[in-house]
Predict the 3D structure of the following.
Amino acid sequence: MDKIIHFTLLDFKQLMKSKTFYLKLILFPMVLIILLGRALGGSDGTISSFSLVVFNEDVGDSSNSQPISFGKTLENKVFQSKDAASLFHTVTAASYKEGINLIQDKKASVFVYIPKNFTKAVLQQENNGIVITAGRDTSFDKSIITSILEQFLRNTQVTLTEEKALGTLLNTSGNTVADMTKIQKQLNTSSPVTIPEVSTNPKAIPISAMQYVSIAMVVLFSISTAFTLAHKVVEEKLNYTLFRIKSTPAHQFQYVSGKLCSILFTLVIQMSAVILLCRLIYGMTWGNPELILLTTILYAFSIGSPILLWGLLAKDQNAVSSLASPILFGLGFLGGSFVSSNALPKSLQPIQNLIPNGNALNCYLLLCEGKGFADIGDNLLQLFLMGTLFLILTLFIFRGKEIIRHGNTNHDKKTIKAAIF
Amino acid sequence: MLRLKNITKKYKDFTAVEDVSFEVGKGEIFGLLGPNGAGKSTIVSMIGTILQPTKGEIFIDGISLSENPHDCKTRMGIVPQELALYQSLTARDNLEFFGSLYGLYGNRLKQRVSEVLDILKLTGKGNQEVSEYSGGMKRRVNFGIALMNSPKLLILDEPTVGIDPQSRSHILDTIRRLKEEKGVAVVYTSHYMEEVECLCERVGIVDHGNLIALGSKDGLKQELDACDTLTASFSKANPDALKRLETIRGVKRTSVEKDMITLLVSPGSNVLDIVEDMKNTGIRLTSFQYEEINLESIFLQLTGKSLRN
């Protein structure tokens, strides 16, 4: 155990000497997250920062004993619900012109005009005449409002259909109008009004796009960091220190474990720092800290093991670098770091659940959504098994690996041949 | 202390070392000589357990290396010909790290680091990064790491290549002291014949993976009927003249490299006559040097090439 710690501390000491490494470790992901945060909407970097203007002219429908106005429900209940408040704030315009002016003056992102006959049109399933106007750079905000409206109208139609069917049933079974009103009230209160946001899988409850991007970047950057550490392993071969280590009584599993621990340690530092900074800057909630840490360790294990294996197999630094880019972008794409896995072609979607970064991404998202160990257990097990498999492979290969040195006096020649027999 | 028994190393159809056997006793300094690619480093790597012999067995202090590598490794220190150091760390950090791999820790480790820094005469500079050291100082640290476990057997693979005379002399003195004071057995490979000549009691000469000569320096000289060496530099010579050199009386073998001629001549030959005959062949000589039988001439006689080739 002592020797494992010494190998880990050795890497840590060397990395500490590199003044830029830890800066890169934390600074680069943070800069990218901040840039993406701004691209996704404003100073606080979340999609909740836009303003919605509503001008409601709906007169409702009073043909029944109980007057009804879907316009008012939309304006006062849906747009000002608790969930909606976390995404945007609503301002009421006095006229259509004022609404348009607020958009033109960039004082609001989206303007919703609810026409006079909105309720009647909805009841009669006709064109409802609602108008959504958005500024030039606010298409994302507009899509959110559009989704909310579509959802509202769909739910309303479902409720009306149910109500109609129930009315028919009640009339035939001899129930009174009073009973029907009571049931109608119940239907109204139970009618769901959900707000769509960015979601990675069908099980997930919505989280903000900014949070998704942050998690995706954290997961992606750790692959890049692991490759940086793989370079250190290759350096050890090229500097002949591996030759020296092999001639000491240190066991091979101690070397491999020590190296893996240093990769885990560095990745945990990176991810913890980014998670903490995201929390401090953007106020993001990441869920249970212990489970976040466990996920981070297992994810670092699952990517650290194969990358360490590659570091030990690689002939030189070029071999590591040449593989780093395709792996980084390939895994980034398939794992959902660049696009949501739902946006991938159907044939590629299952891959997200198989690769380590996709698994980790799903774990983080589930934890952010407030899920617990039971929900991420399978993903964690997969990460653990993946890491263990590659660790065994690394130990097996490292055991049989021989280093051939060139016995000559040409000391400028930094070549070393590595071969597996 | 060290016994190699019929060691062979093969890479597919290439044989790097073939059937090499020798022994090194306690407190003995053994020189291993050979031109580039002869197989010296392969032998050193097999002793250091970096490579596995295809055939044969190695014993260290009577313990089989293949059966108990851990115990063997604790008894020996290896100085590779390359600088196997962490350049971004200090000399103290390097010594501490490798010392810890030999199971040293706490005060014992710190004490040993101080002792080794003292041996290396780097006590005042132990906390300086190795990258800031001169070539000679780096070589000393490279050497010092092998001393961390107080080894009974020290394997030195070209430890003095490319260093200043002061550091070289320091390393050679330390090796002698270790032998005399601690009874350390040393296997020493070098291109510098004069180092081997003054340091080693016995030598083994390796060429094309085979041990072609083994014995004490004097024993080899007698056994091989070795020659004296006449080295001459020239400014002008035609190819025919160079071919005629071997016909000169007393000359046994010739070797020409750029503007340098090396002649192996029978001991007791008249040097001035040979030089005169060389002039008569049409070679314009600029200088010449005559040496009595030494390892260089033995080596040249055995391998047909200079050790520095």
Observations:
- Residues 165-182 of chain B form the longest helix (18 residues).
- Chain B touches chain A at residues 11, 36-42, 44-45, 48-52, 70, 73-74, 76, 78, 80-89, 93, 97-98, 100-103, 105, 129, 145, 157-158, 161-162, 191 (CB under 8 Å).
- The mean pLDDT of chain B is 85.
